Amino acid sequence: MGPQDIYHFVVDWVYYFANNFHRNLFHMFDDMNTTRYIRLIACVGAYLLARPYLVKLGEKISQKELEKQNKAKDPYDAATKEKGDKKKIEPNALRGGGKSVSFEEVEKEEDDEGEASGFQWGKKAKQRARKEAEKKLAAQEKVLQDDDIMEHLVDYEPGQDGW
């Protein structure tokens, strides 16, 4: 088998596919009768009606497979398998670290806002409460300033025209 045979094989192959493409493109509806047209329309209509349901089915199946893959990789599941109790899991076990780190509280901030029941606020909660109180004070001051400005801008006396 020489190079000329390979050349003829490739040329014949290209000619065969070009001929099929031309025939299928231009002569596909030559032998169609009304029964075949009705069958074609029914097939296309069934596809258009069934496609959304098939897509949803595919999404559900792929979602289940994805959850199955993620469940195997979930550090929470891996950490709870070791201990057997989901309530006793530590945050470091979720992060993948085996070490346990604890910090000593160096400075304790005491506020007079504490309740008598012994409830203690965390640092973030105190900051949020302070910010809310500052926002309320700023809003009240703005309203007071607006009232003062309006009072000075308009010299109004009851019963008199201000202009």
TrEMBL record:
Pfam families: PGA2. InterPro entries: Trafficking_Pga2. GO terms for biological process: protein transport. Transmembrane segments: none annotated. Residues 104-115 have a biased composition (Acidic residues). Residues 66-125 are annotated as: Disordered. Residues 66-90 have a biased composition (Basic and acidic residues). It comes from the Eukaryota. This is Uncharacterized protein.
